[in-house]
Amino acid sequence: MRTREGGTPGEDGAGADHGLAAESARASGMAEASGADALAGLIRGDLDDAVAVPPPSGAGRAHPWCSGVVALAGRGEDVVCHEAAGWAVRYASYDETTDRGVELPRERWLPVRRDTVFDLASLTKLFTAIAVMREAERGTLELDAPVARGLPEFGAHRKQDVTVRQLLAHTSGLRPELAFWAEPTASARRGLLWREEPLTAPGAAYLYSDLNFLAAQFLLERVTGRPLDVLVREGITGPLDMRDTRFAPPSAWLPRIAATEDQRGPWGRLERGMVHGTAHDENAFAFGGVAGHAGLFSTAADLGRLCAALLDGGRGVLRPESVAEMFADHGVPGRPHGLGFDLGQPWLTGGLSGPRTASHTGFTGTSLVIDPVSGVYVILLANAVHPVRTWRRGNAPRAAVADRLAGWVKSWQRLS
């Protein structure tokens, strides 16, 4: 990927006939760079506001939106801005009696940097969806075939007609989640899913569900004979040189990883204390940190590589027709949804919103927006659950950075 500071140099004009064109291009480039500088300043202000303690007056919140945050905006291969603010690690625990975070000694706080690694939470689902599309390209599975064709256990309890496409579009009818974290063995955890019955007929309604992507994971692992983390590494992160993206990061990464939550009852399901470097999602943690719905860790720069590849027709990862399929509507009337990606959703995508705008969020405070019409994307990674999930409120910073990028798009379109 190219940054504005280290972009690919152009060639000098070779004759007088090119003089006006070259001058016009230089002027346009200077104006675009100036606009990008302004965009970076605006986004930096949004990030500073998100982490402010206490929040700015009139912000309507008792706590900062997050402890730390990174935002990256890009157009194609070019990074337009990449900003960071706040703290990756600040709190030792949470005091529920005072609703205050118990801070670590100041010398142990870790600032967020542009290369800070975040728990992606449900952004993991996008990688699982891409892995499914890769196997569909190979003919290992079919999107409109029943999941039970490749995973017979799944077909019990009225799930025999649920298709792979319905898993990725959240129209299977399965409930949002189950208490896998409470089961003592891997077999018992999978048994919960085998025994589950859809709440609605497959294809009849939209219902966001982690179970869909756990089922997709188990199907992928069955038909390929390979675990999900290997499929993601060899099929997605490896080809795209996403070296800071993986499940279950090693302990050597810990100084770069943003902490999440003091996880315990009654707000959490497990008694884990401050979670740092392992999957925040209790069910993903129960599955060993590798799960189809959550568990991946990554940086904004790595996710930018993925966005750029998808905007370039899936370069290195998928065929263009597969990307188009992911960004198409496979939802139900009144609730559009792509394969893995959400569509539209102005509450998140702000001024970039449109029927083809693809996006997703993660519970920890992560989000990703891709606009195939203008060719831009914006990523926001935050630890909005640090020190506790009950501080997590609303989506204003997510929409704000999308609005800023949309304004920049309009500016350079006027110059084009």
Report on the architecture of this protein.
The structure is a single chain. With 416 residues, this protein is of the alpha+beta class. Residues 5-18 and 20-28 have low confidence and may be disordered. The protein has twelve helices and 15 strands. A hairpin with a 3-residue loop joins β13 (358-362) and β14. Helices cover 34% and strands 15% of the residues. The protein has two domains: 20-56 and 64-123 and 231-415, DD-peptidase/beta-lactamase superfamily (Beta-lactamase, 3-Layer(aba) Sandwich), CATH 3.40.710; 130-225, Methane Monooxygenase Hydroxylase, Chain G, domain 1 (Up-down Bundle). Strands 1, 2, 3, 6, 12, 13, 14 and 15 form an eight-stranded mixed beta sheet that branches. Strands 7-11-8 form a three-stranded antiparallel beta sheet. Strands 4-5 form a two-stranded antiparallel sheet.
Q: Could you describe the largest sheet, including whether it forms a barrel?
A: 8 strands, mixed
How far is the N terminus from the C terminus?
A: 22 Å
Q: DSSP strand (E) fraction?
A: 15-25%
The CATH class designation of the largest domain is: Alpha Beta
Question: What structural class do helix, strand and pairing data support?
Answer: alpha+beta
Q: Please write the string of helix (H) and strand (E) elements.
A: EHEEEEEEHHHHHHEEEHEHHEHEEEH
What is the CATH homology-level superfamily of the largest domain? DD-peptidase/beta-lactamase superfamily
Q: C-alpha Rg, in Å?
A: 22 Å
Number of helices: 12
Mean pLDDT: 91
Shape: globular
In CATH, the architecture of the largest domain is 3-Layer(aba) Sandwich
